[in-house]
């Protein structure tokens, strides 16, 4: 079928008077004539051993794998465990990076030769070598399905992103369930717009009332959850979209927020609501990202404060009118509570649509970067931008252009042999041939160049590179159309496609930058758009879409990228895996390069790097000019990039992307609903296609806290002040702590515990007046290193207590300390612990501190948390005028009355924490990722990559890669 499409393309080309050029001629860029890419590097053998995070047992082991010496341990581990094919321990198992690259590249080369993409066999061989060199040296990577499937006996699925469709019929809805399941089974994700399904406010042909799309979401959510837990390489990723004029939009908006409230209530009542917990399955709608598709009409109604019509799906009649401002505020409120729904801007999306005659763009993939026709797919590939940064700060413009040519050609070739999960998707994809070239490491490149991420200069460079990438991609697509024909759907959409190309070129002319590097890039981008559009007028284009900005989760780690997708650096300090096992904390290597770019001498570079290693930030770094602080701003830490900084960066590059951008705008926990509403509004004003926000810790039921009351200040009268001075002058008294030993016979209690599968015993002894004075900890066998360390730690804590160090001081220092083992415990009052130390001191707090002190520390028993939730519900009900007397009688309060009285109705905002050391800084920063999910594969805490999560331990992702 693929061959027929190419033949038809050639026939159309001849009919239009532009005969095929006889294949592409390939120029040498990266390779050396007469030398195979593999012979240019030093290879080494390594052992890849992955251990279980709970008990240290080995869950993956392959010894003697072969990699270039410059590949990091992390990249080699991820590629070995994720992408090598064949059963481990058998002769069929791949054991070298050479085998993996050859398996993929040889398939692309053969398909290219078979389908007439190359002028000669020599061109095909050179293409093979250039592609091999680029993959070997981590210049770019295909998306994960290519590494999973190409060159194997499995179906040759190359796409990571899918868009489905569903109509207003039960057959179509059941087909949707089935098609989603097939996509999830293959480890990919899909998105769908449910707006064609009639609302719960409309009638069925039988006379009954329709269920509405939200009800059908339950079935799809359960299906995704089941397949996710069935052993796929990563969790099922899906997107559900509803148009803002759908009569069920208000129910859709609040769906996930209501479920998050349920999670909090059930967890506080003692149910196991942690990730993978026994009771979490009772909560619905957790397997999808939700987005509202808003129109310009709605946004104008929001601006003007007018009503907006919700329309029926059958005949388009008006069902009711709603206050546009209230609905927009409800969307922001729900996003504040649980990060869903996101926003998609319908008119902007379709204004840049190259195929409007075929149909509107109604949906996206789960991460919102691929937006195209219903029942279509897109295969992705991403460039590592740091490979094009010159030592002098320049950019390898010529090599970048040629690299884009190679990648687009390879991606286009893959459609000729690719398999698809459904026939409808296969037909659409072969007819429109959507591609998604993108990049990673823009954050690292900007920092290394001495440019702040949130600056006009940084945005200018990012826009220039993006424009050059997409302009080159479409120019090569026009050349491919001259060789193998334009895409089948081009003829009916020719005028629209050319209009969008002119829009891209016009946006390129509007890039503003004074940076000399950016000026050079924009100059070349202008040439590419001009040449491509001129060639496209003659040949058409081979691909309806060319570029997206994906999250680059697993493949970003494969390429050893410091930053993923369009993201800035996460933090200035990271952990590096070591060959012999373990890890070490290092300052990002981008930092010293940036300092040298800014002109700092080597001595100052070393001093500043040492300061960052100690403090994790650049504030007050010796010799660093304050005006350069912004260069080192990151997504997290002492100097984090403001939310609008992220939005402005997205807006700078969006006009040069065929699809959209996978990125979540991170906001602090203190962000207000009004601030989120403004971010959503600014996204529309700045011309974004999609926007998602994430407020720190919004998906975790935080324990309610009581702010401590400050003692009234004593008025310093002149007499008092004089007396104080006189006393100081008379005598300086030096106070020393006195040790108060416990009596020979003292009360004690022993608690057995289990944290993440590691078992131990805690014995706490008290003074006769019931104050804690001694702690003994028992873990591991007597004589082992761990047992000795725990004994020494117990003695240190005990002596500190006997010298008068308050127990709450130890608790504030050791709770939230994170290291393995960590995870679930067998204690109903402390369901999850970040480490053994975290558990021990939480348990001591619960046993020995009064409620008021624990409330300040945010530590409560399960009963107290339940009482607080009930008190909050009662207060809300009272405000609403609801009588809960009957409910109270049927569900009596089990916590003490004084606890309920002390429980606040609203948690007060946290007081800013002053940071005096790197240890305290670490304590403060760790809270930013506290609600990231645990990896399903290895159990490590994941981090955000675009709109998804990525595990830096094993490379698993929750979306596209």
Please describe what this structure looks like:
The protein is an alpha/beta fold. Among the domains are: 2-158 and 358-554, no CATH class; 748-913, no CATH class. It is built from 31 helices and 23 strands. The strands form 7 sheets. Strands 3, 4, 5, 6, 7, 10, 11, 12, 15 and 16 form a 10-stranded mixed sheet that branches. The longest helix has 29 residues, at 456-484. It starts with a helix and ends in an 11-residue tail after the last strand. Residues 1-20, 229-234, 700-733 and 884-930 have low confidence and may be disordered. This is Vitamin B12-dependent ribonucleotide reductase. Keywords: Cobalamin, Cobalt, Disulfide bond, DNA synthesis, Nucleotide-binding, Oxidoreductase. InterPro entries: RdRp_reductase_class-2 (IPR050862), RNR_2_N (IPR013678), RNR_lg_C (IPR000788), RNR_NrdJ/NrdZ (IPR013344), TSCPD_dom (IPR024434). It comes from Paractinoplanes durhamensis. Belongs to the ribonucleoside diphosphate reductase class-2 family.
**Residues in helix, %:** 40-55%
**Largest sheet properties:** 10 strands, mixed
Beta-sheet strand percentage?
5-15%
Oligomer state of the chains in this structure? single chain
| E-strand count | 23
Gross morphology: globular
The stretches of 5 or more residues where confidence is low (pLDDT under 50) are 1-20, 229-234, 700-733, 884-930
Q: Strand pairing plus helix content: what structural class?
A: alpha/beta
Q: Cα-atom Rg, whole angstroms?
A: 30 Å
Determine the mean pLDDT. 84
Continuous helix count: 31
- The end-to-end span amounts to 28 Å
């Amino acid at each position: 079928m693929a061959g027929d499409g190419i033949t038809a393309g050639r026939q159309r080309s001849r009919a239009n008077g532009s005969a095929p050029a006889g294949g592409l001629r390939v120029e040498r860029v990266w390779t050396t004539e007469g030398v195979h890419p593999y012979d240019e590097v030093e290879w080494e053998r390594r052992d890849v051993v992955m251990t279980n995070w709970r008990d240290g047992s080995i869950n993956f082991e392959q010894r003697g794998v072969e990699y270039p010496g410059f590949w990091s341990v992390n990249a080699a581990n991820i590629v070995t465990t994720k992408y090598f094919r064949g059963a481990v321990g058998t002769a069929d198992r791949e054991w070298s990076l050479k085998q993996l690259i050859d398996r993929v590249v040889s398939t692309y080369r053969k398909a290219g030769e078979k389908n007439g993409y190359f002028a000669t066999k020599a061109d095909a061989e050179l293409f093979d070598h250039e592609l091999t060199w680029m993959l070997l040296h981590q210049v770019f990577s295909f998306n994960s399905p290519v590494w999973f499937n190409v060159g194997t006996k499995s179906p040759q699925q190359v796409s990571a992103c899918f868009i489905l469709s569903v109509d207003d019929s039960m057959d179509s809805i059941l087909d949707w369930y089935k098609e989603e399941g097939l996509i999830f089974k293959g480890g990919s994700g899909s998105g769908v717009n449910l707006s064609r399904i009639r609302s719960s406010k409309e009638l069925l042909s039988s006379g009954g009332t329709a269920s509405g799309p939200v009800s059908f979401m339950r079935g799809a959510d359960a299906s995704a959850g089941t397949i996710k837990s069935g052993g796929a390489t990563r969790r099922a990723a899906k997107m559900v979209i509803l148009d803002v004029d759908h009569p069920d939009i208000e129910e859709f908006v609040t769906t996930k927020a209501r479920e998050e409230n349920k999670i909090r209530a059930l967890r506080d009542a003692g149910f196991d609501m942690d990730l993978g917990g026994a009771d979490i399955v009772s909560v619905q709608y957790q397997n999808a990202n939700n987005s509202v598709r808003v129109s310009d009409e709605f946004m104008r109604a929001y601006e003007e404060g007018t009503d907006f019509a919700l329309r029926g799906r059958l005949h388009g009649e008006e069902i009711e009118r709603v206050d546009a401002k209230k609905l927009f505020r409800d969307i922001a409120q729900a996003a504040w509570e649980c990060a869903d729904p996101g926003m998609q801007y319908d008119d902007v999306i379709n204004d840049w649509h190259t195929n409007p005659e075929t149909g509107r763009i109604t949906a996206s993939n789960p991460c919102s970067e691929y937006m195209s026709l219903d029942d279509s797919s897109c295969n992705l590939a991403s460039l590592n931008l740091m490979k094009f940064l010159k030592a002098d700060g320049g950019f390898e413009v010529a090599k970048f252009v040629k690299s884009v040519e190679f990648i687009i050609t390879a991606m286009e070739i893959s459609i000729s042999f690719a398999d698809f999960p459904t026939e409808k998707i296969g037909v659409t994809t072969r007819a429109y041939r959507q591609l998604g070239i993108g990049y990673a490491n823009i954050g690292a490149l900007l920092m290394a160049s001495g440019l702040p991420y949130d600056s006009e200069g940084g945005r200018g460079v990012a826009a220039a590179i993006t424009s050059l990438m997409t302009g080159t991609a479409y120019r090569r697509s026009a050349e491919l159309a001259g060789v193998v024909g334009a895409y089948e759907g081009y003829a009916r959409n020719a005028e629209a496609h050319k209009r969008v190309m002119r829009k891209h070129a016009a946006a390129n002319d509007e890039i503003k930058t004074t940076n000399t590097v950016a000026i050079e890039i924009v100059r070349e981008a202008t040439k590419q758009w001009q040449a491509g559009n001129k060639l496209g007028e003659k040949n058409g284009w081979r691909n309806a879409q060319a570029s997206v900005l994906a999250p680059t989760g697993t493949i970003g780690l494969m390429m050893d990228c410091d930053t993923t997708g369009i993201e800035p650096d996460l933090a200035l300090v990271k952990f590096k895996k070591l060959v012999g096992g373990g890890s070490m904390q290092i300052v990002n290597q981008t930092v010293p390069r940036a300092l040298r770019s800014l002109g700092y001498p080597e001595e100052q570079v070393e001093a500043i790097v040492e300061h960052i290693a100690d403090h994790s930030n650049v504030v007050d770094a010796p010799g660093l000019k304050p005006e350069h602080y912004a260069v080192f701003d990151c997504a997290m830490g002492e100097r984090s990039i403001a939310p609008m900084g992220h939005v402005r960066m997205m807006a700078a590059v969006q006009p040069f992307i065929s699809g959209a951008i996978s990125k979540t705008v991170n906001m602090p926990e203190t962000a207000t609903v009004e601030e989120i509403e403004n971010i959503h509004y600014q996204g529309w004003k700045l011309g974004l296609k999609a926007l998602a926000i994430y407020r720190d810790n919004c998906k975790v039921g935080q324990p309610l806290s009581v702010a401590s009351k400050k003692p009234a200040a004593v008025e310093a009268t002149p007499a008092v002040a004089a007396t104080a001075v006189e006393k100081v002058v008379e005598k300086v008294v030096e106070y020393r702590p006195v040790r108060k030993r416990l009596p020979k016979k003292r009360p004690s209690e022993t608690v057995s515990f289990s944290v993440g599968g590691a078992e131990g015993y805690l014995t706490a002894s008290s003074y006769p007046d019931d104050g804690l004075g001694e702690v003994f900890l028992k873990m591991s066998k007597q004589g082992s290193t761990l047992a000795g360390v725990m004994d020494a730690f117990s003695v240190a804590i005990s002596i500190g207590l006997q010298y008068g160090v308050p127990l709450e001081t130890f608790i504030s220092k050791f709770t939230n300390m994170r290291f393995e083992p960590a995870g679930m415990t067998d204690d109903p009052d402390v369901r999850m612990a970040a480490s053994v130390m975290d558990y021990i001191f939480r348990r001591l707090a619960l046993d020995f501190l009064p409620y008021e002190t624990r409330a300040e520390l945010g530590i409560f028993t399960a009963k107290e948390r339940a009482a607080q939730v009930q008190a909050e519900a009662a207060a809300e009900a009272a405000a609403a005028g609801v009588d809960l007397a009957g409910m109270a009688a049927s569900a009596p309060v089990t916590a003490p009355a004084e606890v309920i009285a002390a429980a606040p109705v609203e948690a007060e905002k946290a007081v800013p924490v002053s940071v005096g050391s790197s240890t305290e800084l670490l304590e403060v920063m760790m809270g930013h990722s506290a609600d990231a999910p645990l990896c399903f594969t290895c159990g490590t805490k994941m981090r955000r990559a675009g709109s998804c999560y990525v595990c830096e331990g094993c490379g698993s992702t929750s979306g596209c890669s």
